Amino acid sequence: MAASPQETNPVRPGARAPVVVAIDGPSGTGKSSTSKAVAAKLGLRYLDTGAQYRAITWWMLTHGVDVNDAAAVAEAAGRPAIVSTTDPAAPGITADGEDASGPIRTQEVTAAVSAVSAVPAVRSRITELQRSIAASAPEGMVVEGRDIGTTVLPNADLKIFLTASPEARAERRGGELKAKNGQADLAATQEALLKRDRADSSRAVSPLLKADDAVEVDTTELTLEQVIECVVTLIVEKQRA
Ligand SMILES: Nc1ncnc2c1ncn2[C@@H]1O[C@H](COP(=O)(O)OP(=O)(O)OP(=O)(O)O)[C@@H](O)[C@H]1O
Ligand SMILES: Nc1ccn([C@H]2C[C@H](O)[C@@H](COP(=O)(O)O)O2)c(=O)n1
Question: Quick one: which residues bind ATP (predicted)?
Fold first, then answer.
């Protein structure tokens, strides 16, 4: 008799089969929140690839590298050690041993990260790192970013592309800013999101793009819980197939 999907994980007998899931999409569509929750529910590891690009950007900003000078960024791309933790309950990142989890979320890093991540030497270094991390997770992993399904893990078991209207995304980010600063300018937030999307979609090397074989999920009218449930269902269906 064939083993059931719950009995096919060689690392953890009784657990589901290992699965690699790529979740891509524009800013504010819910990639991180969804990926973390889905990984935690299914016992998978979680990799936030945006955090890696943010960490290398933060390192450059704090080490005097001119982030608008592509040659200087390329020259420095191999210098910092970037280490990610992949526990969905406690994701974290260091750059040269320094905890970067807080500093990578500043406005300064957000404004610079698209320029740094467009530099081919940065992309090849971080892509290699991402592939080695994904290969080191025998229980499976949810990897989220912009080019995971198209470039980093083209053989992922399941590819999901999250979308949402610009208004919904600005509303979500605005909620975060309000909680943090007590106020938020929704029009400015939306413009900043769209500016970053334009830069990420128009770079020459592995731009933000839906893979041909990705399942698109429009989250505009869905709660976060509904999106998580939808992705969990897609993964479980894939494991059963
Ligand atoms: N379906 C949803 N409904 C309402 N709020 C949501 C939904 N999905 C995510 N959020 C909220 O929107 C905000 C942005 O979500 P998240 O950081 O997961 O997006 P992201 O796609 O990873 O963004 P970025 O690419 O900019 O890092 C968070 O505050 C999150 O709680
Ligand atoms: N796979 C990836 C992930 C991220 N980036 C770049 C482009 C984003 O604007 C930036 C920050 O990502 P976020 O934390 O907002 O998800 O990092 C990329 O080029 N490729």
Answer: 25-33
